[in-house]
Amino acid sequence: MSTAKIARNQVATFLLLAFAGAWAVTIPLWGSGFQRTSTTQVDGPWVQVIIAAMMATPALAALAVTRSVRAVGLVWPRGQWRHCLTGFGVPTAILLLSLGLSSALGVFPVDLGHVQVGGILLSYLVSLPLFLGEELGWQGFLLPRLLPLGAWPALLAGGVVWGLWHAPVTVLGAQYPGHPPLVGLVCVLVSTVLIGVLIGFLRLVTGSVWPTVLAHAVVSQLAPDLIKAVSAGGRAVDPLLVGPASVVSWLLAAGLILVLRKRVGESGHPARPALEH
């Protein structure tokens, strides 16, 4: 399908607002000399507030462009609870399998003796509004407007945009503490493309952002909490080797994407979210 049909002005305005907003709200982090050096490092309240504000910028940018919640996928998904369970269950299964493999490889010593499942799930539920802020922008607004490129190019492009948007905090060690900034940027791009394709596929299937919010929160909230809880001795881990953004998870996600690509077909897609204005 021709790229000429992309709403270029809308997309350009959205990207400008989302990226400028992300850099603007993180200026205090840069000014303070903040640097995340370990997965055991506890962020102060002001850091958490800044990160939360950054996560809201995609939604604010999308709503500024469309001025409509329905135009960004804020509807109940087709299939209702089944798709929401998929949004939670698939990334959770990938996470648990990747942690099991990392443990079997000896890079992630596990201690299950003090895991508070209730607390982890409560933290996950409380975090959902934060991830709604991102998903209204990426999957709610951007993905449907990139579909003239074709489903798979749109999914890949959305993942690249999502990764680049993280740059203001990635270079400060947010996702890969202890690694050089360039390594962090490259690894974030790999992760966001792979994870973004899977999350975006949920958006295409359901026509809603709610399953994508559940999936995103598993990756970015439930996963770190679970890893901290089961890490033997509470020791720091290397996110490149352990967790949803690790090499192990990349391989699992890539395998699932290949299965989806084979089932859907190279040029087709399961659904096309309507663009309401």
Walk me through the structure.
With 277 residues, this protein is mainly alpha-helical. The protein has one domain. 66% of the residues lie in helices and 0% in strands. It has 10 helices and no strands. Helix 1 runs antiparallel to helix 3. It is globular, with a radius of gyration of 18 Å. The mean pLDDT is 89.
Features:
CAAX prenyl protease 2/Lysostaphin resistance protein A-like domain-containing protein; Rce1/LyrA-like_dom; globular; 0% strand; mainly alpha
The number of helical segments is: 10
Strand content: under 5%
Q: What helical percentage do the residues reach?
A: 55-70%
**Which structural class best describes the helix and strand composition?**
mainly alpha
What would you report as the Rg, rounded to the nearest angstrom?
18 Å
What is the arithmetic mean of pLDDT?
89
Topology readout:
Blueprint: H1 8-25, H2 27-32, H3 45-66, H4 81-104, H5 117-146, H6 151-165, H7 167-170, H8 181-206, H9 210-230, H10 247-264
